[in-house]
Amino acid sequence: MMNRQITRRQVLQVGALGSGLSLAQYLRLVAAQVPLEERAKRSAVFIFMEGAPSHQDTFDLKPNAPAAVRGAFSPIATRATGVHICEHLPLLAQRADKFAVLRGITHNVADHGLAKKYLLTGNKASQTVSYPEYGSVVSHEYPSVPELPTYVSIDEAFVGPGYLGSRYSPLTADKPQHGMSYSVRGVSLEDGLTVEKYKSQNKLLEDLDIAFRGFEDLDDQVRGMDRFSQQAFNIISSPQTRLAFDLSKEKPAESERFGKHEFGQSLLLAARLIEAGVHFVTVRLRPAEFDFDTHTDNFSRLQSLLPPFDRGLSALLDRLQERELLSTTAILAAGEFGRTPKINQNAGRDHWARAMCAVMAGGDVQGGQVLGETDATAAEPASDGFSPDDLAASFFRNIGIDPTHEFQTNVGRPITLVRDGLPIPRLFTG
User: Fold this and answer.
1) Tens-of-pLDDT digits for all 430 residues of the chain?
2) Which residues are CB-neighbours of 248 under 8 A, at least 6 positions away?
């Protein structure tokens, strides 16, 4: 009997995207005519600080703790009264009125893989349910105009669309490098892919579609090839899409403002995508350039890691505000857990899930405040604390998506978007 499930590798590649999907496949899976009113939905940027930065050396310093706990960094005052953050974040200190610091976030998953799934979805990993990451949920609820992807992941996605299905996968883009020509494979028509070559491949797909006619129960990846190959051609030639990814259009001073490093350029690209109409962008900070898993040399490594983070995030906040988009763009920056209160023998800090912090900005977030508190050694919440579920519920609420919304899952039953979390009180205006 014929196998009706067609894998990605079995489908012809028409300008492969970083995700492994051809542009034609991606568009076919997304496939939705977007009502005009959907274009005004909120957007979001999730900055995932993979590896887990130490909370007590960034946004939750403990200057009065013993030397073996407090570490080498000092707190500095910020523009927000009573709010202090690390001395290596001076630009963010000047913009503290634009963001809220969330301290005392706590959970019990100290494994990188499982904790990342938790923080990227707002639900603990399950053996029966594959939960979708934030961007896939937004892609489901807020599809962009047909000429643009709804969800872009700068660097490959870690979790994926889960029970929502592959049509809500992100378009994956490589991280841009300062001073180098940047393009998205399959969108820019570079690397030998010309319009004429594309037309030839498109004709071959049409022939395949004709060959499969009559098999009405075939996987729709085959049955829809011809139509979505044409749509792929349309998006490749779309000035809107190509312009959104073209960092060469930025003035040198703007590129400089974000920083001549991978992180800054990634956030500059994120800003351009949001401005173009993309609804969700994930920026993954992960090894090798940004490795927050500081089991050794925590302080010397953070002295290199924090300035680019400080500069890039500050520039993103400024640009979105200047272009009147900060009020409609939810921003979240977080890692998967915190680091141990006590410094180890290698001048590092190890995994610690009982306390961590996050930064939220944009949308309805009331900036200039700290919510939550840890104890004297930053070891655990001083009171009840917040969970990653609460963080996710707050993020979705700020995007305009009800965190109690129910979806049908791959196990055949409805499930709440965020099972156990609630939006954090006093985080939002109004």
Assistant:
1) 333 333 333 333 333 344 444 444 444 444 333 444 444 579 999 999 999 999 999 999 999 999 999 999 999 999 999 999 999 999 999 999 999 999 999 999 999 999 999 999 999 999 888 999 999 999 999 988 877 888 999 988 889 999 998 888 888 888 887 766 665 654 544 444 444 555 555 555 555 444 444 444 444 443 334 444 444 455 555 677 778 888 888 999 999 999 989 899 999 999 999 999 999 999 987 766 678 999 999 999 999 999 999 999 999 999 999 999 999 999 999 999 999 999 999 999 999 999 999 999 999 999 999 999 999 999 999 988 999 999 999 999 999 999 999 997 766 788 999 999 999 999 998 6
2) 181, 182
> Other CB atoms closer than 10 Å to residue 179's CB: what's the count?
11
Instruction: Choose among 288, 302, 307: nearest CA to 348.
Output: 302
Q: Does the structural domain 42-178+250-416 have CATH classification 3.20.170.30?
A: no
Angle at 170 between CA 169 and CA 175, to 5 degrees: 150
Domain ranges of the chain: 42-178+250-416
Residues in contact with 362: Cβ distance below 8 Å, sequence separation at least 6, in sequence order: 44, 45, 317, 320, 326, 327, 328, 329, 330, 331, 398
